[in-house]
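User: Sequence recovery, please. Input:
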């Protein structure tokens, strides 16, 4: 049971950084789109100001927004690089190496109601079974501990 728990733990240790790479890639794509939009807004504001129909404050606002989005772009790129490096570290590559994922993980839908999912998990997951056994042992031990405490404090007298 401990071997299977170790395998599952290892799988989750790899799965988390894979999801982090996937999330970082999606954030970078979104920021790239926002960066293109901010550049276009700045260009339009400059054209309007140049034509005499726009306000200088609109151009300054667009420039400020572009700077903010550029910072987000740098942050998203750094987050992706760190996520790739974390994944490389988890799979055992040398320090400083990075690795990428080629396909996105698509979430699975079971079609089962949450109550049924909990029931299946309690019946089939070995780590949950092991936790239940440990919980029962702790409950039994705490019950005995209470009886011993009562006997030692004189509240209960052994029957003969």
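Assistant: Recovered sequence (160 residues):
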């Amino acid at each position: 049971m401990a071997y299977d728990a170790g395998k599952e733990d290892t799988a989750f240790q790899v799965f988390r950084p894979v999801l982090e790479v996937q999330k970082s890639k999606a954030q970078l794509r979104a920021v790239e789109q926002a960066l293109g939009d901010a550049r276009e807004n700045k260009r339009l504001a400059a054209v309007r100001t140049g034509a005499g129909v726009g306000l200088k404050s609109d151009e300054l606002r667009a420039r400020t927004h572009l700077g903010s989005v550029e910072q987000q772009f740098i942050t998203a790129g750094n987050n992706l690089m760190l996520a790739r490096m974390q994944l490389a570290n988890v799979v055992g590559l040398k320090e400083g190496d990075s690795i990428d994922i080629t396909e996105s993980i698509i979430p699975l839908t079971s079609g089962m109601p949450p109550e049924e999912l909990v029931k299946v998990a309690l019946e089939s997951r070995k780590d949950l079974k092991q936790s239940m056994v440990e919980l029962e042992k702790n409950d039994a031990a705490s019950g005995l501990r209470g009886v011993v405490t009562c006997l030692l404090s004189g509240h209960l007298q052994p029957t003969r």
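Helices lie at 2-51, 56-91, 114-124, 126-153.
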